[in-house]
Amino acid sequence: MTPVAVDQIFVTTKHLLMGYVPAFWQPLASAILSVVPVLVVFPALFAVTTVLERKGLGRIQNRLGPNRVGPFGFLQPAADGIKSLTKEDVVPRDADKVVHFLAPILLVLASFIVYAVLPIGRNMVIADLNSGLLFFFAVGSMVELAVFMAGWSSRSKYSLLGAMRAVAQMISYEIPLVLAAVVVIMAAGSLSLPAIAEMQSGYTWIWPHWYVLTPWGFAGFVLFMISATAESNRSPFDLPEGESEIIAGYYIEYSGFKFALFFLGEYLGMFATSGLAITLFLGGWSAPFSFLTWVPSYLWFFAKLLVLIAAFIWVRGTFPRLRMDQLMGFAWKFMLPMTLVNVVDAGLWHFMPSGVVRGVVCAAVIVIPFALFSRRAQEGKKLQIRTYRYAE
Amino acid sequence: MSLFFLITAAIAIGGTLAAMTRRNPIHCILSLALGLVGVAGVYLALGAQFVGFTQILVYVGAVAILATFALMMTQGHIVSALIEPRRAFSRSSVSGFVTAAGVFSVLGWAAQSYRPLTPSTQQAPAAGAKEVGVALMHTYVLPLEVIGVLLTAALIGAVVIALPSEEERS
Amino acid sequence: MLGVGVLKGLVETARNFFGSYVSEERLTTLQYPEETSPRIEASRSFPFLVYDGSDWQQGMRCVSCQICEKECPPKCIFIEKSPDKKPDAVGKMQFYPAKFDIDISVCMSCQICVEVCPFDAIKMDVDYNLSATNRFSDLLLDKERLSKSNEYYHEIHPTEAASVDADLAAAREKAAPKPAAPATAAVQTAGTGGAAS
Ligand code: SF4
Ligand code: SF4
Fold first, then answer.
1. Chain-chain contact of A144 with B61 (C-beta, under 8 angstroms)
2. Residue A230 Cα, gap to closest chain C Cα (Å)
């Protein structure tokens, strides 16, 4: 088989299968054939990620991590799944039963629907919407509602506090998230994610045309990833969960399978935003070098996804949790101005003639404000080695 | 009328009806969010993707959340006042009904008696991202800027109110 | 500049991550059921009753004075006095517990029972293999399951056990000079015991 045939194998298989379906049922069959693989692959990825995360975090802390269930502990998610399925489902007596029940479902639903617009390979997207990016953010904002519903309906102080924190944090970081993505819209001139991925699939000599390789693209990618970490409530922005202060935040009152659904939704959200970052900045399904284009596009997408997941795990294993004021200050005093500067920078890039001068000027437009902001952030702060009075 | 339109219209009407009739204010907001999703669905059924998604992003993602947030912050006497049993013929409900009836009858009358001066030949205006952008940046650039200034002023005002006053700081 | 500390932290954790694969001494994890950590003399888990000699019923040091039962903060000790008497560790005729239960699902390992016992009869164990399949019956330890020999006590707390043994030997010496009248001594202690209870 030629590389192109291997690359398109899923697309051609679907076409082949569709040939056997009567015309009336074709829209439905097409939807099922596209949706079911996503419903299988990403939860499977979730299962693998939980093990990898626990093992990786363990190694970072010089522990072994799970290693009992199955070879090297890789069947741990199966054990966890059985455990959460068989656990008692406790609903607090004063809880708002309906909302309490709907919250995890809405969360998982919203987390799944965003995959409709993610191109996970060449010609492999469920719905090629003209406003795909907007769809992604619109549905992503429903997660906030689900989190709020979970926190409020549990009738518990901890979960309400967690929901307040989560909603405040998500609203604050959604703005830099969207603004960081705006530069890509400016460059690509399209809101359709497959089109954006297609734009980046060209090569100059062996180097790809990924947006991350431009000054504004790199800055945008970093800002986007920081906001995405905050949006998906992961460490170091995991205040809404804050095990050490509010135990588990908005899902403290959930048990058994509903708790597992929250977990699933959270990880699906993380994968989706990582996938969006890949599509926007890392060239989507395109190969990193022109001589590697024979590798199927979907493999590149998942390879990049795994790299980003590893980065998420690494960050989680490294940083302590922020304080609430630091979190908000970071969003409004650093992330927002930097994304605005980045938008200006992308405009500058668009209007300057291409060449070395453009690269240098655009890099300077990013680096100088960054240096100023970091000076500003650090002045007046005395950093010293902390001493412990009673520990010794 | 497609099935999709019927479903979304039902969601929109059901959601907003629930928003008006539920007693618990949080339930009201959640049903309102559902109704707004239904409205967005109607936009989608009409082929206006951009407008539909913006509707969800702005109204469900931001406005509904802000409303719930405000409610959580001000829980207490305001909510209990809202939950108090309402009489069907209180002054406020009667005046509300009268106003609503007036508005809708004028709207209906306008829609009934409207005859286009020239038979419309052009297509329905497209509402894609590009058209909206062009309209905002060319035809309506002045109103847009004015609104921007207004919102900035409101934002600054909110910050000033939220800042600790002189005696609080000392 | 902002972010330098962030990068430093990332490098540090990456070093840990890769280091744990190359250098064995970084990993301190014990594979629990197969490997167990050595007993630590200065640790404690739950109380047990010490007996001398080979017969746990005869050698039981506890005289059923019930001080520990009164002092235990969560009230997890239950004692029933025996109707008859037997010689205690020093040789005096004393009561012994007909029933002695400790609910270790309630016990908080505070060691107060050990501190208050005037007869060195109750001591803290160091065993941590305590998981059970029934959370009620398996965690309510009766007299038989609580009894551990003095040799075991020496094994887990050598220094402490040695000083206890020295004290007991001294007490026995004091009690020994009047072996002629064991009956009167027994009556006397019985009388005081009765008055106290
Ligand atoms: S260790 Fe403390 S809690 Fe446990 S039995 Fe002794 S006195 Fe009671
Ligand atoms: S204090 Fe000592 S002698 Fe008295 S009942 Fe408790 S264990 Fe037995």
1. yes
2. 16
Does a structural domain hold residue A161?
yes
Average the pLDDT over A42-50 and give the result. Answer: 89
Query: Coil, strand, or helix at residue A379?
Result: coil
Q: Residues A22, A27, A29, CA angle at the centre, nearest 5°? A: 70
Question: Which residue of C9, C20, C21 is in closest CB contact with A318?
Answer: C9
Residue B30, in any domain of the structure: yes
* pLDDT at position C184: 46
Is residue B37, in this structure, part of any structural domain at all? Answer: yes
Nearest CA to ligand 2 atom 6: C68
Number of domains forming the structure of chain B: 1
A126-147 per-position pLDDT tens digit: 877 778 888 888 888 888 888 8
CATH of domain C35-173: 3.30.70.3270
Listed residue (A270, A262, A248, A216) closest to A52, CA to CA: A270
Beta strands in A173-280 (DSSP E): 203-204, 207-208
Chain A residues with CB-CB distance to B65 below 8 A? 141, 144-145, 148, 167, 171
Q: Higher confidence at residue A69 or residue C109?
A: C109
- Domain range for A100: 91-376
Considering the domain boundaries, does residue B78 fall inside one? Answer: yes
Residue B168 pLDDT class (50, 70, 90 cuts) = low
C41 and C126 Cβ atoms separated by less than 8 Å: yes
Whether B117 is in a domain gets the answer: no
Structural domain count of chain A? 1
**Predicted model pTM:** 0.76
Interface mutation target, options B2, B22, B30, chain A, most CBs of A under 10 Å: B30
Which residues of chain A have a CB within 8 Å of the CB of B128? 130-131
